[in-house]
Design a protein that fits this description.
Blueprint (H helix, E strand, L loop, with lengths): L8 E4 L4 H11 L5 E4 L15 H16 L3 E10 L20 H14 L8 E11 L5 E12 L15 E3 L11 H7 L1 H13 L2
Parallel strand pairs: 1-2, 1-3
Antiparallel strand pairs: 3-4, 4-5, 5-6
The protein binds inosinic acid.
C-alpha cells in the first residue's frame, strides 16, 4: 500500500523555478502548501546513480532529511533508442553550462547523422521519475513516459528543452508546436503526476 501524504506542507526538492511552479500547481488543489529548496537555502545534491528513478529518489530523500518535511523531486530526460538511450540522464548536461538546448538538439542531430540512423529509425521517449520521500526514509516513486520520434529541423517555440525535435506518437506536430495544455495532457511528467495523485494524494 502506498503511503498517503497527510502532512499539510511539503518541500519541492528543486532549485529550478519552473519545476517548483509546476509541482506546486499540482499539489495546491489538495490543500498542500509548498516550500522550495531555494527558499530553505538547501544545497543542491550531486546527481549520482544511473537511472531517472535512482536520481529522483536521492533528490527527494536528501530534501526530506534536510528540511524535516515530506519532499517531492523529479528527474527527467530524453532517451533516443538508436543512440543506446542517450542523452538520457544526461539530457540537461547536453545543453552545456549555459543550458543551451539549441546546441543540445544540434548534438542529437549530429549523433544521428554520424551513426547513420535513417528517419524511420529515430524512435525516442521522454521519461519522468517523480519521488515523494519522508524524513523517516520512506519513499514512493512513480514513472511516466511518452513515446515518439525525433525530427529535424527543430520546429516550434512553445515548449522547452528538446520539445522542438520531438513528435509524440499519433501526432504530426512537435511538442514545441503544441499548445502547453495539449502537451500536458499526454506528457511523461503528467503521467507520473497522475500516478502520484492516485496513490498518495486522495
Ligand atoms: P533534470 O530533470 O533537471 O535533470 O533535467 C531534465 C532535462 O531533460 C531538461 O533540462 C530538458 O532538457 C529535458 N527534458 C525533460 N523533460 C522535457 C520535456 O518535457 N520537454 C523537453 N525537454 C525535456
Amino acid at each position: 500500500m502506498p503511503r498517503t501524504l497527510t502532512e499539510p506542507k511539503l518541500l519541492v526538492a528543486s532549485h529550478n523555478k519552473g519545476k517548483v511552479r509546476e509541482i506546486a500547481a499540482l499539489v495546491e488543489p489538495f490543500g498542500k502548501a509548498v516550500v522550495s529548496a531555494g527558499e530553505l537555502e538547501l544545497a543542491e545534491p550531486v546527481e549520482p546513480g544511473m537511472t531517472f528513478i535512482e536520481i529522483s529518489e536521492v533528490k527527494a530523500l536528501a530534501g526530506a532529511k534536510a528540511a524535516g518535511l515530506p519532499a517531492l523531486a523529479d528527474d527527467s530526460g530524453l532517451s533516443i533508442h538508436a543512440l543506446d538511450g542517450e542523452p538520457g540522464v544526461y539530457s540537461a548536461r547536453w545543453g552545456g553550462p549555459k543550458k543551451d538546448f539549441t546546441r543540445a538538439m544540434g548534438k542529437v542531430h549530429e549523433a544521428l547523422e554520424e551513426w547513420g540512423i535513417p528517419d524511420t529509425e529515430r524512435q525516442a521517449h521522454f521519461t519522468c521519475a517523480l519521488s515523494l520521500a519522508w524524513p523517516d526514509g520512506h519513499c514512493e516513486t512513480f514513472e511516466g513516459k511518452v513515446y515518439g520520434q525525433i525530427t529535424w529541423p527543430a520546429r516550434g517555440d512553445k515548449g522547452f528543452g528538446y520539445d522542438p525535435i520531438f513528435i509524440a506518437d499519433g501526432y504530426d506536430i512537435t511538442f514545441g508546436e503544441m499548445e502547453p495544455a495539449d502537451k500536458h495532457a499526454i506528457s511523461h511528467r503528467a503521467r507520473a503526476f497522475a500516478q502520484l495523485v492516485e496513490a498518495c494524494l486522495q
